Amino acid sequence: xxxxxxxxxxxxxxxxxxxxxxxxxxxxxxxxxxxxxxxxxxxxxxxxxxxxxxxxxxxxxxxxxxxxxxxxxxxxxxxxxxxxxxxxxxxxxxxxxxxxxxxxxxxxxxxxxxxxxxxxxxxxxxxxxxxxxxxxxxxxxxxxxxxxxxxxxxxxxxxxxxxxxxxxxxxxxxxxxxxxxxxxxxxxxxxxxxxxxxxxxxxxxxxxxxxxxxxxxxxxxxxxxxxxxxxxxxxxxxxxxxxxxxxxxxxxxxxxxxxxxxxxxxxxxxxxxxxxxxxxxxxxxxxxxxxxxxxxxxxxxxxxxxxxxxxxxxxxxxxxxxxxxxxxxxxxxxxxxxxxx
Amino acid sequence: xxxxxxxxxxxxxxxxxxxxxxxxxxxxxxxxxxxxxxxxxxxxxxxxxxxxxxxxxxxxxxxxxxxxxxxxxxxxxxxxxxxxxxxxxxxxxxxxxxxxxxxxxxxxxxxxxxxxxxxxxxxxxxxxxxxxxxxxxxxxxxxxxxxxxxxxxxxxxxxxxxxxxxxxxxxxxxxxxxxxxxxxxxxxxxxxxxxxxxxxxxxxxxxxxxxxxxxxxxxxxxxxxxxxxxxxxxxxxxxxxxxxxxxxxxxxxxxxxxxxxxxxxxxxxxxxxxxxxxxxxxxxxxxxxxxxxxxxxxxxxxxxxxxxxxxxxxxxxxxxxxx
Lengths: 341, 323
Prior knowledge:
The complex is a heterodimer of chains A (341) and B (323).
Chain A: E1 4-15, E2 18-30, E3 35-39, H1 46-54, E4 62-70, E5 73-74, H2 80-86, E6 91-94, H3 108-119, H4 124-137, H5 143-146, H6 156-168, E7 174-178, H7 186-203, E8 206-211, H8 214-220, E9 223-228, E10 231-237, H9 238-243, H10 248-255, H11 295-299, E11 304-306, E12 313-315, H12 320-333, H13 336-340
Parallel strand pairs in A: 3-8, 3-9, 6-7, 7-8
Antiparallel strand pairs in A: 1-2, 1-4, 4-5, 9-10, 10-12, 11-12
Helix pairs in contact in A: 3-4, 3-6, 4-6, 6-7
Chain B: H1 2-29, H2 34-39, H3 45-54, H4 61-75, H5 88-123, H6 128-142, H7 145-159, H8 183-217, H9 220-227, H10 232-261, H11 264-269, H12 275-285, H13 288-316
Helix pairs in contact in B: 1-13, 5-6, 5-8, 5-10, 5-13, 6-8, 7-8, 8-10, 9-10, 10-13, 12-13
């Protein structure tokens, strides 16, 4: 059984302009110790999905339905006190912007100790010892001294390490990382990813890696979910997704990955803007931007259907033959070896 | 830190000169004859001339200003009132506590109302509580202190007899200047002025607190705290409050400094013998030394409170360095 199983999750926001359907029936699963990559552009609903899972949306304007079963219990029906026992203890969360995600007027040590003391019945001294130990584990030099520093005395990469330490300090079974490297520069990104990989092995935890960067998914994830317009449009094992992407949006994502061996001088780009979630296009949400759009795409939402590989599903009205033909043509334009990896 | 204090000191000196010179210039432009006022109604032209010479009013303005400066440097004196002939320093020393009672007591009143109300309306935007407090805010901002004071004095003091209509009692017993004294009488007489201040300032502060709490609650680190499993109460107390009070401290320091210099309206309505009261009297009598003295005192008060605010800010927010 999966550690986290999300079924038909729907999240809507009531705004002054109308109801925004941020997530429209998302189902996905995370296995124990595995890594799920969740890919999509801004506004695809990937962050909102997991904020809904954690119950972190403001109930005054957000409605969440569906089910989120974590270790056999539905988190959406839990009492607030039960939910608090899961948050931070069994599911840790890392956010996108390390510059704003730490409280600026509290010492790093205090914030780490708070995470321990909220869930474990230990003394403050013991919590502090745990905090220092954890800072060492995320490779912060001179952890004994730096534990008394304030967030503004740390660089962006170091702050993200602190965030990771805070998410992992209670040995959670699952860590949800919401674009943990987006705000960092490239060398720091690589370090943070390597660190998370190492910690995953040591702590034997599952990771949900929310990102818009397929490179991160390729490096870290076992399974992958591609989201568009609040829906899952393709899901597969990472190897299957890269070997045989099945729908035009995924083709676009893969085509816009920069690579050294690019034949043409320009990166392929997906034209147009992400869909409005207030007034989504009818039929397939991707149809206004799709170069292979057909009449049926404007009328009917394509169902998730199975591909050849097990657990590989996608949404597209194009028939198998056409998709195969387009994929071969697209691949020829790119470097085939890169894709096979 | 030393560089910070030295810069502040220069700034204070600059403000001192700016404020006093402007006061002298304005006084010079006003068509009043302080010598005539000081000499009394039945004085002859000869008397007025003698008084003018005695008060150094017969020399050019820049010389008068120089005499004022010299008295401060040589004697540490702000001069003598034209009217009562008492030292200005003594007068200010006697009346400043009245104004301080009014302003600090008022600040306690308006803060203890506006912080809880502001937080509650931030937690439940658009609720009945929020709408009621916003209505109150609107009244407080629109109403004039004179009107608020007079209405309070009339209704609570005159009609209901709950409080004195006006007047002041010393905090410390045994003073001869006024008839009554002691903390209880002091507070009893100050309640209406404090409430006037409260209505006036709480309006602004409820809005300020509400806006800051709402803004802080949408910060990323508040979401982080929730994701750690902290309860709403803990999130509020440990993560929201301190951060959202930072701007309030700044505004509070400025308001107290400004209010100390002259709570003119409130003191006039409730006949409190404070600096605002003095200022009006001095202005009517053309009492330049007293006016200048109060201006100097107000300047020092504003500078001091800005300094206190800066230090408090550095204590509350570790990101701030005093340089």
